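Model: You mentioned two targets. I'll fold them one after the other.
Researcher: Yes, keep them separate.
Model: Target one:
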Amino acid sequence: MGLKIEQDLSRFKKIVRGKVKKELKKFVSSGEMIGKQGKKLVSIPIPRIDIPRFKFTDKQQGGVGQGEGDVGDAVGQGDEEGEGDQQAGNAEGQHVLEVDVTMDEMIEMLGEELELPNIQPRSNEKYEQIKNVYRGIRSTGPESLRHNKRTYKRALKRQIFTGEYNPKDPIIIPYKDDRQYRSFKQVKMPNHQAVIIYMMDVSGSMGNEQKEIVRLETFWIDAWLRRQYKGLEVRYIVHDAVAREVDQHTFYHTRESGGTIISSAYKLCKQIIETDYDPMQWNIYPFHFSDGDNWSANDTQECLKVLQDYFFKVANVFCYGQVESEFGSGQFLKDLSEKFGENQEGLITSQIENRDAILGSIKDFLGKGK
């Protein structure tokens, strides 16, 4: 019986996982997820699914197959439809079950759905010694790896279903088959740490919806990269005509406006890298998000120069995401394409039309495993 319950629980988890993956685009584009940073669980609403069953009632109540009549008689249509407005009912309504999914599971499902590869090491990257990572459970193993909590729960289930459990004398004695042990696998741990530097255009042409799209996408990019590196630092830059470094809260809540000089952000990002992050010791990921509206063609040329002369040499990859805005020109993405083409080593670009395009944009940036 205990095995049957575990199988049902496993099947239920697969159903939940399937429901979440089916609605992944909705969850990814929900602003509520940003508030989950640092929290382990996410509540996911799942519609209740009732299992069909026969219901036996008193024979005297009548109905199809009961009462008077001969074989072949037509079945009546029942009561006529009533007239007038519908009245408030007192019947049970549809229920929604909220299940808890860990953020790690959400990120894992994101990777599966988008088929994201693990980040590949740079050519100069070294590995630490191979480490044992304890992530599984098995029924055999050394006593030093015994999982006491799982063993106790398994023994408790067995005693309940066999009738051995006495609530007045709740002594739980695990049998050999109850014992559960941690299992491990050997993984290579990257020696290098990583830094993400997010740059966001907060000028007047970037509306609140465009800024929210950027924040949602950076949230999930950040979450995925945290699974790839044991040490990850994140820096935030906002810019209009002037760039400044801000903390995470300011990045996710600022509502500034003004003109746009993109090179101000690139110069500040370059300064941060040169001051704090040796490219030989760090994997560097600069991300820039804008609506593509720059102040002048001269400033755009300055941006293209610093990309070619600096960022392509020190960063794992430079990512530029262009959010569509009714006020933005979108010219910067065109300038990047004209200058570097579609296959420039070290550059990934993505066009983000709306919230529904966030998933595709994440795949653009992370799908190559750089």
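Model: Target two:
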Amino acid sequence: MKMESDLNRFRKIVRGKIKQELKKYIASGDLIGRQGKKAITIPLPRIDIPKFSFGSSEKSGVGQGDGQVGDEVGQGSPQPGQGEAGEGEGQHSLEVDVTLEDLAQMLSEELELPNIENKGQKNVEEEEVRYSGILKQGPDSLHHFKRTYKEALKRSISSGEYDPDDPVVIPIKDDKRYRSFTVIQKPVANALIIYMMDVSGSMGDEQKEIVRLTSFWLDTWLSNQYKGLERRYIIHDATAREVDHDTFYRTKESGGTLISSAYKLAVKLIEEQFSPNEWNIYLFHFSDGDNWSGNDTAECMKLMEKNLLPVSNLFCYGQVESRYGSGQFLRDLTKQFGEAHDQVTVAQIKDRDAIMAALKTFLGKGK
């Protein structure tokens, strides 16, 4: 049908426009505020098709009305910047709803991201029986007594057999009703993301906003790779604690920084709640690179090598540039594990425009 063809053409145009502006959307916090459960609203510029309009026949001038010899072309027309305010429409934007799945696919195509090779026992989907309707035939085990009685009662009343003084209703074969069911594939939460962030005084509001934007796109991508996700949030300064999503991005402390406190809490969380045999585990840590001491950095490396890397798919460290941060921790990680380590990935996020490159670095290994 022509309408369906036009709709598909429109979708291709929208998709192309979004991909063209993807870097801008990634760096924009406004986009997250438009997010729903399964879709996100994206504003696109709208271009109106030019159209002719006929002027009044009462006006004089070239091509219409009575002109005089020697009249200048365009005489009497208003000069630029003069005249009254117009009544016509200005530029508009068109808002379109794009599913998070489509958004993740666009991100994948633009960054050339490989699909993730899953691991663990919970990569399969569990079957769930859901009763979805009523049928006139079925096995006795699915006999719906209440609906059967209602059908018998309606038949009895409509036929005049029902006696209010002797309200006996006996169902016949045609009155019997049975439950119908469908077998659906129930997604199993098979991936865990642990977000860790330094909330010491050197991490300002803009640094936290960069972490929030980066996390949104990480979530969008990983949600498309797995049927379900579990998320945990850890904040730390000199000590670490697990918090909810909102607290993760709003908390600010003024103390020092002991990064190992976050890694120890992540180890405890995994050991107590998430078996590596059943979960694909992703660890994302964001900091401005300051740590309390070299001894604590050495402790971090031991925790990673002994406890975190053996149980995780990927460990990603994002260093958000801060005017107060030294950036030393990224250099320590690179020295310890090298730039080509199979599980450890590091990225320096200087500003919002660097988020796109960080996403490609984090997700480009297909782990």
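Researcher: Noted. Anything on target two?
Model: Residues 206 and 351 are 9 Å apart (CA to CA).
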